[in-house]
Here is the input.
Amino acid sequence: MRKLFVVPVALALLAAGAQAQGTAPANTKPVEVKSTGTPGQAAAVRTQKVTAKVTAVDVANRTVTLQAPGGKPQTFSVGPEVKRLNEVAVGDSVTVEYQEGLMLEYQPAGTADVSPTAVVAKERAGSDQAPGGAVGAGVQGTVTVTAIDTKNRMVVFQGPGGNVYQVKAGPKIHLEKLKVGDKLLATYVQAVAVSLEKAAKK
Here is the structure.
C-alpha cells in the first residue's frame, strides 16, 4: 500500500465512515496525555482509520467515488496535486489514516511565551510507486492552565487566541504539581495519509 491524494477527500471519508458505523468521531473525547519519562513533559497520539472501495473514477472531470462499509457511495473532487489519477481503478481499496499528536512541556516561571508557529509538510509517492501522498500540519505555542479537576484528572488550558482545550492526565503524571496559571509549551500535529491498494487481477 502507498500513501495517496488529498486532505479534503480524506477528512470527508473519515466522517462518512464514522456515520456508517453509527458512532461519533474519535476526537469528541479529551485525549489522554501520558508521561514521556522526562520530568514536566507529557504526550498523546490518537489515530483514526477508515477503509473504502473505489466504485467509480472520472479522470476527465477529476472525481473519485468511494464507498465505506455500510455507507453510501460519495463522490469527491481530486485536486491537481494528484498526478496519476488514471492509475486509480474501480475495485481498488482506499484507506484513510488520520493521526493527531500532542506534546505538552512545562515552562518554568519567567520563561518567555512562544508565539503560535504553524508548519505544513507534504509528501508524494515516487514514480515507481502507487499514486500517493500525505499532508501534515502542526502548530506550537504557549498555553495557560485555567482549570484542574483532580478527581477526574482533567486539565483545561487556554491558547493565545483564547481557544480552550481539555486533556486527561494519565496515571503516571504528577498532577498535584500542576496549578492554575502555569504555562505549558504545546505542540499539536495533524497528519492525514490516504493509501491505495490495487485490486487483485483476475
Remarks:
- The chain has a mean pLDDT of 79.
- The two ends are 19 Å apart (CA to CA).
- The longest strand covers residues 41-58.
- The chain has one helix and eleven strands.
